[in-house]
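Hi X.,

You mentioned you wanted examples for the new student's onboarding notes, showing what a folding record looks like when two proteins sit in one file. Here is a clean example. The first protein comes first, with its sequence line followed by its structure tokens.
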Amino acid sequence: LKMSWFWFYLPLHLLTVAFLCHSIKASSRFQQSFKANLFNFYHPLILADGKETTVHLLKDIPKRYYFILEEGRALAPFTITVTPCDVPIEWSVLMHKASASFLGKATQGDHDTQEVSKSLKAPSMVSAVFSYKGNSVETYMGMSSYSALYMLEFLSTERDTHITVYLTTDTMSGHLYPELPMDPRIDVLGVGHTTVTLTWKHSPSVLQHRENIQYCLLVNEKHNYKSLCAAETAIRSTGMKLPPVLALSLSPYLLEPQQVMILSNSELSIINKVSSGEVRQICMGAKNTYTVPNLSPSTQYYFDVFVVNLLTNASAAYTGTFARTLEEPEPKVTMLKDGEVIRVVMDGQKQSVYSLQYQARHKKIQFTFQLCHGQVQVHIAKNAKRVASGNISGLRYFSLKGKLLDTYFVQLRSTEESNSSVKVQVSSHFHKPLFPLLPESLKIKSFSKLRTCSSVTLAWLGTQEESEYCVYKKRIEEDQVWMELQSADRCSGPESQHRSEKVLCKYFYDINPQRAVTTETIKGLDAGRLYLFDVYIFGPSGIPVRYHSKVVKTRKKC
């Protein structure tokens, strides 16, 4: 580490002047005067004992801090812990030790300024006792001397960054940082397609202070982090704010839009959506074995465990590890027959991918997909080459052209952890559509001004093709609304409704699509009650399509 001796000696020279401004009658008096003048002149550069200090570094500009010891602490141990929060840095500890003649003259009251200044600036009096370069958390342990002034110099040669520095002379009682076990490695117990099970040896701090210490696990797809400070800095660099690790269990309101919080079985997880993939933080209390769920198959993940002091927010890092999840097994393939309608149900946890195969008997074919529940993506390949893909919303058609006996491979993937389902048909008979012609929107509209205590007025779009529309109603309670709307099976027909819920059926069409709108007033309702309304449209094949359910509340007073 390149040192600028001028900047090291400048404070020492000024301190010499300060010393001689006082009458130094004894060694203890000398120490008090030394420390008093050091604080008066360089208080912002003095490292506090027993307190963590955050230091901001500018690229290629050294930064220096000083410390001296309390009176009576001669030949006592001290430690300095430096935690880089981003890039590797260089840092060193230098000591200036006053000569015996200088101390003797000081205690006798001899105030020869030139002699004292010369003694302070003698190169032999300054020595580098420790230096380090890297981005690991490093601790220096030394023995203090009452006649020594210590200087720490830090330098970042890559870019602006920040670090934390912790100095303590109390090495026997209490620790700011939780202790790591003798073997701080993380062991991988098992690897699955979407899970990895980890274990690590308990921290002595957890065993002694279980209520104030917890483990937090960081999962990402980029690399391991040597400190929690470095991990938080990396996530912030993506442009999002990251709550402190302890806010994971205390302040969920700090979450950003790109973050998802999951709380279950006394474990709290925060998932950050970043450009390089997900970064997950899981705090699991004092448990030292954990199975990470919901990972992607055939993906390498990096795992870091931090033991965190809940009272001080200080942390210590275990040695990180990595593992690659297993490749997803080849899905079973279901053969499709021309004109046949099948319903595919995908379990987001066990089988999120479903595969279909079809051999064309005509040059032109059409795939039809009707989303029943959840969210589904479809990919269609012809002779091993992708020809169509997209998300399924409501009804979706893919008309494709090829050769006789072309083989089509269809892959359906659920994008939700819960179950998803979809109806699928492939047909070469375009003149015999399976589903009715649909309007631009399947939304049902209600007119608030036309609501009464016993009736509501609904409207929905029709088409240029004459079709049958059937309306159903169901009275529900306030606490049933969310469940009714979320669990609705959009592929189910009127057979899922009770006969008493049927209101009416009517035929309707209009050649002009701008005027293809119909309204209906539903009477005989109870005042101040919620009703769930469904409308079904039937095409020539008799297969219905359900409009989006609508919840309307009648007026309480009229």
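Then the second protein repeats the pattern, sequence line and then tokens:
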Amino acid sequence: LTSMGEPSMDPTTSSPDSTAQQDSLFSMMDVFLISLITGLFTYWFFFRKKKEEVPELPKMQSVAAPVRDSSFIEKMKKTGRNIVVFYGSQTGTAEEFANRLSKDAHRYGLRGMAADPEEYDLSDLSRLSEIDKSLAVFCMATYGEGDPTDNAQDFYDWLQEADADLSGLRFAVFGLGNKTYEHFNAMGKYVDKRLEELGAQRIFELGLGDDDGNLEEDFITWREQFWPAVCEHFGVEATGEESSIRQYELVVHTDVNMNRVYTGEMGRLKSYENQKPPFDAKNPFLAQVTENRKLNEGGERHLMHLELDISNSKIRYESGDHVAVYPANDSSLVNQIGEILGTDLDTVMSLNNLDEESNKKHPFPCPTSYRTALTYYLDITNPPRTNVLYELAQYATDAGEQERLRKMASSAAEGKALYLSWVVEARRNILAILQDMPSLRPPIDHLCELLPRLQARYYSIASSSKVHPNSIHICAVTVEYETKTGRLNKGVATNWLKNKVPDQNGSSSLVPMYVRKSQFRLPFKPSTPVIMIGPGTGIAPFIGFIQERAWLKQQGKEVGQTVLYYGCRHEHEDYLYREELARFQKEGVLTQLNVAFSRDQAEKVYVQHLLKKNKEGVWKLIDEGMAHIYVCGDARNMARDVQNTFYEIVSEFGSMSQPQAVDYVKKLMTKGRYSLDVWS
């Protein structure tokens, strides 16, 4: 404002003209000032109003709504539940056990719900005591090398960092593991220990299920002691209600738009027709099989090499990663189930959850046909668990068959033994059970509700993305065996893959797949030596490793010693990738190629025998060369025998006692210098 009035302050310029100008200026200024003041007042008024409204924002529920949805406490209160069973599941078994425990609760006058920890805020565990007779149960599977399952990763991270007070929480844990693995039931043990450290009260001892033995029996044994402990703790009694309770209701669609019907998709409807990245477990990529060749020259088995085209998928992978494929069940098995149950398999239906509050609206994508469900969504080849037999028993019209089914589903020693021999050891799948029990004819919709989901199969990738950026290679052996009942059982995925014929178009060559990241990685420095041990199809990731080392060498990088210990039955029968390995050795990429032919001589020779034979050189590479060791293949025997061999080598050449040698190898594992990619 002072700058605008400056001309009137100079007396030497005063004149009638200037006075008139001044009057004019002031009148203009008056208008301007009034306008400005009015504007400022208006601006202030509205600005002040907005400022006053700001504190009101937190009251708007739309902002907080998602948080409310993720509260399992609010859900339990709303639906009158007092037991929550969380599951950490990779293959569906832990989820299945969690569902069984939550269904059990009604027999004791309690109400349970199974919950995926990925969908909820687990810090709410500290509030569970707000609910009367509340209990949290955790069915936690251990995956890989003592890791949490994908859906339990966030929960695991929270447990590690949490300093919450869980003193009001009552809990119990059942772990699912496999004793052939180094870190048996690590996740179950950790959750049990950590919850206690945070002040929670354990109301029943930790259960440790072993999939190498009889996981189902381990679970039943734990469960039959768990519920009496719950009853004692809360002062409740079993109601005696043993009746079957359906979780889903059947809706048959007689007039439905077929464009709204699932035909095998894992997540989004029509996702196979309209593919959109990113691709994962719920949105697999349909890869074209460009090569499918038999690797072995003879013998009864069929070993194969497949190449999947991932061009334009934006899928990235590293050597050592796994490729997951979603297989389909054999159509002849599906048709036989339809025939034996007298069902039109092309009936379009939905199974809708009777619990409207449940996050799981259907057991598999719906609406769909029975044929699609039995082909793509349900496991019809594994022996069914005891809960399936228990639920099916009511449909057996023959009293003897009904009693037999109920006995196998019971916790009595005789029943467990019968289930083990008649179902597990005889490898009877659901079709075999229906065939061997002529009076058992359940409604197909209830059968579909009870059967577990068909799971993706994982294979170690047998290629390097540096050499094959648009292709993923698989090395596999078809599974086929005769059961004690004389039936021929075939592996779902390997036989399905075997029939994938490379062609220009058509679904016969398409494989739904995605990549799962792994910790099985080459050393950061190419100059670091590597010792790879992989008999049979365990050679798969090492083909990728060697390809990558060859590529690095071509780039002018200094590549350390690359040593392979491979094993097969016969040199002229099942020596996989023979030509490729010979070429890599000739080019100097593969420094050492040690092959054990186990059955070409009277005494069997395995990879661990060759390691012992070269023990001094092996120790030198580990001790002086700081070599990284990789083991891939069978966990039950091979991986264990190889590890014991390393204990011996370390003990002898490192001048250590047996316990010191064991500790030395364990430290190599901790440092990432001894890696395993094993299966049982």
